[in-house]
Design brief:
The complex is a heterodimer. Chain A is mainly α. Chain A is elongated. In chain A, 58% of the residues lie in helices and 0% in strands. Chain A has two domains: 146 residues, no CATH class; 88 residues. Chain A starts with a helix and ends in an 11-residue tail after the last helix. The longest helix of chain A has 16 residues. Chain B is an alpha/beta fold. Chain B is 40% helix and 12% strand. Chain B has an eight-stranded parallel beta sheet with strand order 1-2-3-4-5-6-7-8. In chain B, helix 11 packs antiparallel against helix 12. The relative contact order of chain B is 0.14. Classes of the chains: A mainly alpha, B alpha/beta.
Chain lengths: 268, 339
């Protein structure tokens, strides 16, 4: 079953018969009819919350609204046989998108043909200050993991940390951890500490494999933090790393050593 | 007009109210909000793009829970289609989001304004992209459109947009001119009727004592803009409500980049309360009538602003969760320390 068919199957489990017949009528239409249906969807489709435990094309659609799912489905019906017509019609939707439309378009990126073509749309969503649009690229979306350069990936993760967003919801978070990102987290922590502020403790999960002297100094700072979450993060990093001075440091903190910690505890 | 009481003492105008009311209104300047406690307001005409976050904070504090931002000109003419497109996009995008950060529901009307209708080459292009925006969520009307200088080009695009509104089933928000207002208002209504538009779908804006009677008689909605110096003052507004009642009458601020007051609606409600207008009439002209008129678009769900804001931690503005705990973070304006 194609991804498009899978999306429609999921829609059918949440939509009313009237909604389903509207969707069927529109999805068989011309390119222009599809564009209009994409825009008009909330006038005919409810905002019922989708319950789903399985992913479609690695996209986790749980907690989406039904109109968002229907919009993504319409986008999979655009004929991509002529690249220029295809990209132009989608570009029009991007350029005139209202916030909820933008969310649907960004959510649909993993389903679109010519993934390279959409890179600027994806990185622009990372630049967005509109929370919902940023979230649509950051969370429940495999596009960044699959296509982002290291630079773009690191921007995404850093902006999440900077804005106190839940990084554990980024797909591919541990797979795409890298030295540059670990260094940037260390720099960000220094800036925040100098200003009397903090970074979310779970950010340190991204440094375990990239430990060096500088980052190790940060971990030592975390051990003496007043915040238990920082201490837990320090313990977990030292448990995970191969960096031997970190192992020695960990042994000094007997009060933390024998407790069972995991990163999930810091995801709140 | 006639707003300086010292000058009219010998010859009070018909819309000044009694001497006693006037005295009361002069003594409560500082704490007018005491008179609007528990009231909520809907401002159906305000250009938030031109306003600051201080204004948003003041609006929600004063009880304004929802607003409509009509598309208008930006103080100088746009030179290309892309500027229009980005402006319309911002009304359903960034500005809508910015408003949500303060717990205020933001709607808009989309249209080609009368001033810029005079650049016909550009107007043609704008007409082509209007349908892309008119069908979007939260677009509650075609507006603000109508006459300014009352030129042939203005009439042409007013008529074309009336047809668009019919096709989309959307109410029309009609701007009436500053100069030769009475004639412009009559012409706007006559043309709307000629196009077969039900007057109950048309909101005639910026009314005054001279235009209101005909607007109401013909079955249109009559909106009044409380705007210092050039449009209505709120003392005059109170007299209008006393005379014509509350049916199909609504008040707005039309606050924009000029010297205007975003709190015009709550302030007018306070003045009405002081001057003895009933709570129900106040509610109708500062809240319910605007909702009834624009909800004909099918795009207003009162639950969105009548129930307490759901706190969504994903809604962040530059890293600040404005809605955390339902409280808007406040800056102490008198504090020297910025942290």
């Amino acid at each position: 079953m194609s991804f498009s068919e899978q999306l429609f199957e999921k829609i059918k489990t949440h939509a009313s018969p009237k909604e389903i017949s509207w969707i069927e009528a529109k999805s068989a239409g011309s390119l222009q009819a599809l564009q209009t249906a994409f825009v008009a969807a909330p006038r005919f489709i409810s905002k019922t919350i989708i319950q789903s435990t399985d992913s479609i094309n690695d996209v986790d659609i749980n907690n989406w609204t039904l109109d968002r799912l229907v919009r993504v489905y319409f986008l999979t019906k655009f004929d991509s046989s002529d690249r220029e017509t295809y990209t132009k019609s989608l570009d029009t939707l991007f350029e005139t998108a209202e916030n909820n439309e933008a969310v649907a378009l960004i959510s649909a990126l993993p389903f679109l043909a010519f993934p390279d073509y959409w890179m600027l749309r994806a990185t622009d969503a990372v630049r967005s200050n509109i929370g919902l649009i940023f979230d649509a690229i950051a969370f429940q979306n495999p596009f960044p993991m699959q296509y982002f350069s290291e630079l773009a990936w690191n921007q995404l993760v850093l902006k999440c940390i900077f804005n106190d967003k839940p990084i554990h919801r980024i797909q591919g978070l541990s797979e795409r951890a890298n030295q540059e990102l670990a260094n940037s987290i260390s720099y960000l922590a220094h800036e925040r500490w100098a200003a009397g502020r903090t970074i979310p403790a779970q950010a340190w999960r991204l440094v375990s494999k990239f430990m060096n002297e500088a980052i190790f100094a940060d971990i030592c700072t975390l051990f003496v933090s007043q915040n238990l979450h920082d201490q837990i993060a320090a313990t977990l990093v030292c448990t995970e790393t191969d960096f031997s001075p970190a192992k020695e440091e960990l042994n000094k903190h007997t009060e933390l050593l024998n407790k069972t910690f995991n990163w999930t505890m810091l995801e709140g | 007009m006639c707003q300086k009481h010292t000058e009219i003492a010998q010859n009070p105008s018909h819309f000044e109210g009694t001497a006693e009311e006037l005295e009361t209104s002069k003594t409560i300047q500082a704490n007018y909000a005491d008179y609007t406690k528990g009231m909520k307001f809907f401002d159906p005409h305000i250009h938030m793009t031109s306003r600051t976050t201080d204004d948003y904070t003041a609006l929600i504090d004063a009880g304004v829970v929802a607003i409509i931002e009509p598309a208008f000109w930006l103080g100088q003419p746009r030179t290309g289609l892309a500027s229009f497109k980005d402006y319309f996009s911002s009304l359903v995008g960034w500005e809508r989001f910015r408003s949500s950060q303060f717990g205020i529901k933001h709607y808009c009307t989309i249209g080609l304004n009368s001033r810029e209708a005079n650049n016909e080459a550009l107007a043609e292009q704008v007409m082509e992209i209007l349908p892309l925006f008119l069908y979007k969520e939260g677009v509650v009307g075609v507006g603000e459109i109508g006459f300014d200088d009352q030129t042939a080009a203005e009439e042409k695009y007013y008529r074309l947009q009336l047809e668009l509104s019919k096709e989309a089933g959307l109410p029309v928000q009609v701007h009436t001119p500053h100069r030769d207002k009475k004639k412009g208002t009559e012409l706007s209504m006559a043309i709307a009727l000629e196009h077969g538009i039900d007057p109950s779908m048309v909101i005639i804006d910026h009314n005054n004592e001279e235009t209101v009677e005909s607007v109401l008689e013909q079955g249109f909605w009559a909106a009044f803009t409380i705007y210092p110096f050039t449009k209505m003052g709120n003392e005059r507004m109170v007299e209008i409500v006393k005379k014509y009642g509350s049916e199909r009458i609504m008040v707005n601020s039309a606050a924009d980049w000029g010297i205007s007051d975003p709190l015009a609606v709550p302030k007018t409600a306070a003045l009405m309360k002081i001057k003895g207008i009933s709570d129900e009439d106040i509610r109708l002209v500062t809240y319910q009538n605007a909702i009834d008129a624009f909800a004909q678009s099918g795009q207003i769900n009162v639950v969105d602003f009548e129930t307490p804001q759901v706190i969504d931690q994903s809604l962040k503005f530059n890293g600040n969760t404005v809605l955390r705990g339902g409280q808007i973070p406040r800056i102490d304006k008198n504090s020297l320390i910025i942290s």
